[in-house]
Request: fold
Amino acid sequence: MALQVSLVSADAEVWTGEASLVVAKTVEGEIGIMSGHEPILAILAEGQVRITQPDGSKVLANAQDGFLSMEGSQLTIVAGNAALIA
Reply:
């Protein structure tokens, strides 16, 4: 079962889709989240969000000033600033 991910900034949806793994930087260090992860709420630190899609392709984004929330199979990352890395 894939993880449903939504990455949003203050003014726009940055990326939404399925992932097998998401790695983000929090104020307590990096965290890796896969489907089935226990519910969590964490404060984002400035850094990269690395999303691995089920086919193995990667999506990279810079994010800062926000939080991430995991509930069920839904991971929501809300950042004051977020943008995909080309």
